[in-house]
Amino acid sequence: MARLPVAERRRRLLVAAFTVISRSGVAGATTRAVVDEAGMKLASFHYAFASREELLAELVADVIGRTEVVLTVPPAEGESLERLLERGLLRYLDTVREAPQRERAMFELTQYSMRTPGLERLAARQYEGYRALAAVSLTEAAERTGCAWQRPLDEIAAHLVALTDGLALAWLADADDARAHRTAAFAARALAAEARPLPPESRPASPAHPAPSPHTAPATRTAPAPPDRPGEPA
């Protein structure tokens, strides 16, 4: 059978590396563990990457590049900003609960990039992306509930990102759903307190049947896309 193109080989190794890190952490993502997960021979690795460090650097960049809003929380009729934010935070918490290993891997990759000379900027860029997506979420949440933020949007967005990180890390540590729900409610109250209702004549017109928007919940992190088929042709 034909050999895999280098680009496809690299993609499969990135997917395998993320899977191994999700299971065993960055320390466990040895070259051998990654190629075993990918169903490749060890020699195949060096056709795709010069070193393990190059693989991990590209994985960090790939994960950051895939940051996107994947949560959808359409607003209910007459819903307050606080309640909309709380539902968005709880939806985000659901994604953490559904795939805790993925979330741990994301945090570990962030820590790895901050500790590794030459990769520090990747962590900063990661959080710049989170804050930009949070700003979009907050803008739309305020518009849909007839509110306006009283402080600079970038400041509120930074608060939202910090709150979602704390919410996720605390739940990963103790898996206490009740405590996490209380934290989400507190975070929503704190954020909503930074907004004020607009008078009816100042509110933007909304469609009679608004389509669900992906921007009414916090950003989340996504893993590299899995290969179409497992393993490598012989």
Helix content percent band = 55-70%
Q: Total number of β-strand segments?
A: 2
What do the pLDDT scores average to? 83
**Would you tell me the structural class of the helices and strands?**
mainly alpha
Q: Give, in spatial order, the strands making up the sheet with the most strands.
A: 1-2
Q: How many structural domains can be distinguished in the coordinates?
A: 2
Please provide the ordered H/E string of secondary-structure elements.
HHHHHHHEHHE
User: What is the gyration radius calculated from CA atoms?
Assistant: 21 Å
Shape estimate = elongated
* Distance from first to last alpha carbon: 6 Å
What kind of sheet is the major sheet? Answer: 2 strands, antiparallel
Counting DSSP H or I runs of 4 or more residues, the number of helices is: 9
Beta-strand portion reads under 5%
**Can you tell me the residue ranges where pLDDT is under 50 for at least 5 consecutive residues?**
207-217, 229-234
Keywords: DNA-binding, Repressor, Transcription, Transcription regulation
GO molecular function: DNA-binding transcription factor activity; transcription cis-regulatory region binding
Protein name: AcrR family transcriptional regulator
DNA-binding region: 30-49
